[in-house]
Amino acid sequence: MYDSIDTAGRILRAAEKLFAEQGFKGTTMRQITTEADVNLAAVNYHFGSKTGLIHAVAGHTLEPLCQDIEAALAEHGRTEVVPLGPLLNILASALVRIHQSNPYALSVLMRCLEQAYRPNQAELQAFLLNTYGARLHHFLQHLRHGSGVEGESEFFWRLHFLLGSVVFTLSNLHALVALDAESDSDETALEPVLRRLVPVLTAGMQAPVQREIS
User: Is the pTM of this model over 0.70?
Assistant: First the structure.
């Protein structure tokens, strides 16, 4: 007989694997209970609902990511300004570490970010904002300062261009590596890809505002 903590852990691991492979919408509760070898009542007892389980799986990735970023920023002190390049390297390093510790973490994180921007996702948006908004506030302050752009609207759009670039790249990582004619198709290619991505993101965040298309 499995104890309560072990049962919750098996449900979480099963859901994480299936969500990473199939997405949130594409994964049924029956698939999760089969993978975890539990009944539906156990899922409801520990997580309340599929939504509660999605939040728990998201937190399983976001919590260590936030802790890593917070620890790196703490080394610079509360008043020291972190330049944009090193700041994005902090994010990249945190992503590499969660990927190394959990093979499903990046896929879950990318799916979570994609899902949050779809229609009728107010509950997920509220969960992410209320749980992690304050945790990432210091990082976003540095990002805002490092971008050097004027106006909140301009920063809003550049932030989302940055997010879009990261989500597209990491969601399609293996396909992009396979398409690279000079790549050795190493499935652990996250770090070199992020090394290429960081300077592009840095330049994009700091690019002059273009007033017209000509």
Answer: yes
